[in-house]
Amino acid sequence: xxxxxxxxxxxxxxxxxxxxxxxxxxxxxxxxxxxxxxxxxxxxxxxxxxxxxxxxxxxxxxxxxxxxxxxxxxxxxxxxxxxxxxxxxxxxxxxxxxxxxxxxxxxxxxxxxxxxxxxxxxxxxxxxxxxxxxxxx
Length: 137
Fold this sequence. Notes:
By secondary structure, the chain is mainly α. The protein has a domain at 23-105: c-terminal domain of poly(a) binding protein (Orthogonal Bundle). The chain contains seven helices and no strands. Helix 2 packs parallel to helix 4 (62-82) and helix 3 (41-57) packs antiparallel against helix 4 (62-82). The relative contact order is 0.09. InterPro entries: UCP029876 (IPR008316). This is DUF1048 domain-containing protein. Pfam families: DUF1048.
């Protein structure tokens, strides 16, 4: 089966993905890690620190996270090619940078989902029907 084909997955691949997770997401992650490994040391150190932060506070799902990591690799590859200093990328407050960066990837963020779920539950408890889509509590 070739990537992007419309062929149905074999039962073995379906079972394997149930156990291990999406094989496509794993391939994308390995490609991302290879890209980061090729960066100059100071850029690689910065990306690895940012990645650790994102692992705790970033999108929780595979697709949302991988899009973010691929964009992160693009940013740092281009910055390294241009010779942009690390501090110029992050600014004076690295947390402010990463929070603004993550705000571009709201899908999959467990915190955003939980905020919406919490708000919806309180609105329902208060007898307010706002027509929100999130009805899972």
